[in-house]
Write a structure and sequence with these properties.
With 302 residues, the protein is α/β, with parallel strands linked by helices. It contains 13 helices and eight strands.
């Protein structure tokens, strides 16, 4: 196999992280493979320090830290930063993860599963179509600020402004006749679609500036109006799947459930159809994180 052919089979892991260095190191240890390159975007507002962070198999590219406000345009820009850094080298697949994620199987299984695939693993939540419109069609002016998260009255003011916009017919989707779609932030996509995303960066910035949680909207909306629509992965039940096991039924406000050791058998069952899972936190259950890392390193899966 030539160097070019070998590169075309490699995967890029795109990771955003802001704290918990040791858990990040555990995640990286499970991705550390000659067939992978890893791109890390650190949130400068967090406590994460990445000095002397190195790997012996994967190439690790650490982007300059930037402030990332969850649910704001800065989160989408962090994704675009990662795409820009990685896409120049042309990978077979791009996996977007956070520092709170873990794979459920080893790299041999991940590469084997995707070796001959050309699908886009992006999930959709059709039941959230009205919510997607609310997130993207109106102006949420205060989201790109720590004040939005710190003060309840700022969030109340923001919601009142949305009601004002609805009352006076201010809807920025009217001019473009845009239909918004929603789903999970996390994905596994091909190089071709990654390039397509970057080619539409201006549209993304214009359409989703001042949106709320549009990291859950922009990619779904873009792919549905693109030639890649026919390549969206669907499971046997017809639902879209992004190869990730995430529990929103036991959600913690706006965050998915954080798994505990008591969920180990559930995660083991999930590993039969999902390559990754979230969320994990050593503070919540150190033993579960350590057990998963040990099992994958020594047995290939849970």
């Amino acid at each position: 196999m030539t160097l070019e052919e070998n590169q075309l089979k490699k995967h890029a892991y795109l990771i955003t992280a802001y704290d918990n260095r040791y858990q990040l190191e555990q995640l990286l240890s499970l991705l550390n493979d000659e067939r992978n390159d890893i791109y890390l975007q650190v949130d400068s507002k967090g406590s994460l320090r990445v000095d002397n962070l190195t790997l012996n198999k994967s190439s690790l590219f650490i982007l300059p830290p930037v402030p990332i406000y969850w649910a704001a345009i800065s989160f989408i820009r962090a994704e675009l930063n990662l795409f820009k850094a990685a896409s120049a080298k042309r990978y077979h697949y791009y996996h977007f993860l956070s520092g709170s994620d873990l794979p459920l199987v080893n790299q041999d299984k991940i590469h084997a599963f995707l070796e001959n695939m050309d699908l886009e693993y992006i999930s959709f939540s059709p039941e959230d179509s009205l919510r997607a419109h609310w997130k993207a069609a109106y102006y949420h002016f205060f989201v790109e600020s720590k004040l939005y998260r710190k003060y309840l009255f700022i969030r109340i003011l923001s919601h009142l402004m949305i009601k004002f916009q609805i009352l006076f017919g201010i809807d920025r989707s009217k001019k473009s006749n845009e239909t918004f779609h929603s789903g999970s932030t996390w994905f596994t996509i091909t190089h071709s679609f990654a390039e397509y995303i970057l080619a539409h960066q201006t549209w993304i910035e214009k359409t989703f500036l001042y949106g709320l949680a549009c990291d859950e909207v922009f990619m779904q909306t873009l792919i549905m109006k693109s030639p890649f629509k026919s390549k969206i992965n669907h499971g046997n039940d017809g639902t879209t799947q992004n190869l990730r096991y995430i529990d929103w039924k036991r959600r913690d406000k706006n965050s998915p459930y954080t798994f505990k050791m008591s969920d180990y058998e559930e995660l083991k069952e999930a590993s039969k159809h999902s390559l990754f899972a979230r969320k994990f936190n050593r503070t919540t259950d150190q033993g579960l994180v350590d057990s998963i890392v040990d099992r994958i390193k020594n047995h290939g899966s849970l």
